[in-house]
Amino acid sequence: MTVAVDVIPYERHEGDDERSMWICRFGPAEPGGWGLHRHEQHQIAWVSEGLTTAVVEGRTWVLPPTRALFVPAHAAHDVVNRPPAALHCLYVWPHACPLDWTAPTVIGVGPLLRELMLALSGPALQAVEESARTLFFGLVGAVTDPGVAVPLPDDRRARAVAQWLVSRPDDPRGLDELAPAAGTSVSTLRRAFAETGMTFTDWRTQVRLQAALPHLADGMPVAGVARRVGYASLNGFVDAFRRHFGHTPAAHFTRAPDR
């Protein structure tokens, strides 16, 4: 069920009106999952350790430390961490932000941006706010590899199927078996998934790749990850991963971002 936008609350932080940009840090034990909410500021969510899942207006991204997500002001969102994850959320008022992005955008976090984010999370930010903001946004750029963003279908029955497959990506059933279990037809499910902008096959691939990232981050062997997320062969998983990310699963958490 879609939550009406007008019932999603705005959250305020102490000192909102006194600063143009600031960062909130959350410790490794913080799971997140505060529920859908909004801010009048833009937000950039990033973990210096671990993984986090950002949910923005019905789409989800799994983010390692080499990626952050820009969430535009007023967008309904939530952030769920995979403990232990060290989450840093930067907030900036739109009038102080040089970015003109109006949609969620994945940012590459290289060594310099990483160190700057860590430094800005400390007490020194207010003393150097203007110069820090200029340097920060000079380093920020969208990446060509956007991670994994999986939209859910609007149709109630298709959404139930989608939510099941998100929780059980290893389920091997196709639409011809899933449709009767959901009390609908194959054509209805196919059409509902197509309305997400992807075929069912492409959508399922995205879900499986998303499900693979936490296991890869935990150090599980690639062959085990492939089986865990529903691939019958290691080569099939590696090929799908390379097509989407441009590199192998083994390289995903070790390569530098392209920005």
TrEMBL record:
Residues 159-255 form the HTH araC/xylS-type domain. One of its GO terms (molecular function) is DNA-binding transcription factor activity. InterPro entries: Cupin_2, Homeodomain-like_sf, HTH_AraC, HTH_AraC-typ_CS, RmlC-like_jellyroll, RmlC_Cupin_sf. It holds the Pfam family Cupin_2. It comes from the Bacteria. Keywords: DNA-binding, Transcription, Transcription regulation. PROSITE patterns: HTH_ARAC_FAMILY_1 (PS00041), HTH_ARAC_FAMILY_2 (PS01124). This is Transcriptional regulator, AraC family. It comes from Pseudonocardia oroxyli. The lineage of its organism: Bacteria, Bacillati, Actinomycetota, Actinomycetes, Pseudonocardiales.
